[in-house]
Write a structure and sequence with these properties.
The complex is a heterodimer of chains A (about 170) and B (about 180).
Chain A: E1 5-12, E2 17-18, E3 21-23, E4 32-38, E5 40-41, E6 49-56, E7 64-71, E8 76-83, E9 86-93, E10 103-109, E11 117-125, E12 133-141, E13 150-153, E14 158-159, E15 163-169
Chain B: E1 3-10, E2 19-20, E3 29-38, E4 45-51, E5 59-66, E6 71-79, E7 82-89, E8 98-105, E9 114-122, E10 130-138, E11 149-152, E12 163-169
Parallel strand pairs in B: 3-7
Antiparallel strand pairs in B: 1-12, 2-11, 3-8, 3-12, 4-7, 4-11, 5-6, 5-10, 8-9, 9-10
Classes of the chains: A mainly beta (about 170), B mainly beta (about 180).
Amino acid sequence: MSVFLQPIYTQTIASGSTGSITFNNIPQTFTDLKLEISARENTVTGQTFVALYLRFNNDSSSLYSDTRLYGSGTSTNSSRLSGNANYLGSDEAANSTANTFNSVSAYIPNYTGSNYKQMISDSVAENNTTGIDMFLNANLYRSTSAITSIQVLPQITFSGYTTISLYGILRQGI
Amino acid sequence: MSMFPIASITITSNGTNPTFTSIPQNFKHLQLRCYLRAAGATSYQYVYFRLNGDTGNNYTYHYLNGNGTSAVSSASTNQGYGLIGYCASNNNTTNVFSTEIIDILDYTSTNKNKTLKALSGMDINASGSNTGLWSALWFPSTIAAITQIDIGPDSYGCLAGSRFDLYGITTSNATGA
């Protein structure tokens, strides 16, 4: 029986809104981590999409950078960012199709190691229009500390039914 | 353990497409892994899908795709089906099958339209190869849990030997951020 993918914790916003979702005390017993995100931000009026970020170890220093490949439904580009959090993609906001949530996967290898932390992520913020946000990202956190907490940050607040699952992945031999 | 095999369909007759029915409702997420080649003797094909047998114009799809020469992003809205990748066909290099992994989060929710996200790839050792990130939205008038998935290269059907594996992914149950 495979045990390579194990649930660590899932958080769901039952109703109302929440400013961020944090996973604390992440077990240090896995090889890699994986996040699955289904999120929306109804509270942001006047916009279709807003930004979704991630921060490790509650560290808001400028140790984060991102390389992005982007598709809008009509055009593509690639760009780099740097700042105090990693960029994951977009959330649907009030102007996007009702009841529609994004889909984001993020993979964090060797999260207990002493090298800088490299993450890869892919995300789609859907909408029943031609224009959407799609990203393939390489995300770097320039810290040698093991990852013990992950904070997923909306631009303003997450909507109800937003759900985020954190998994641990084991390599062979553990 | 959190990832369980639900069903596996191997195509044994050229020109047929798989249908997953009576999908269990006791998982949090679904993942569908596809290994396929279209039976039609044409150029590469789209991978079509429908959910719960819904043939209404309730699907929108988008992609970010590279073909070895350039990258494009495109979309189509209010369709009677969704597209979720490219696949090789019988006009492409022999023995080449396409691969894609499709994630469907919160598939039992009756509060969310369903978003499908896929990584899709087919190198055919020639121009006409493709790799991309695909996304599709299913927005029926009444939001429903997913109980059925129809998928494949539409009327061409799959070549025998194509395989589709559906997995359910559980989570720990915790509510409140």
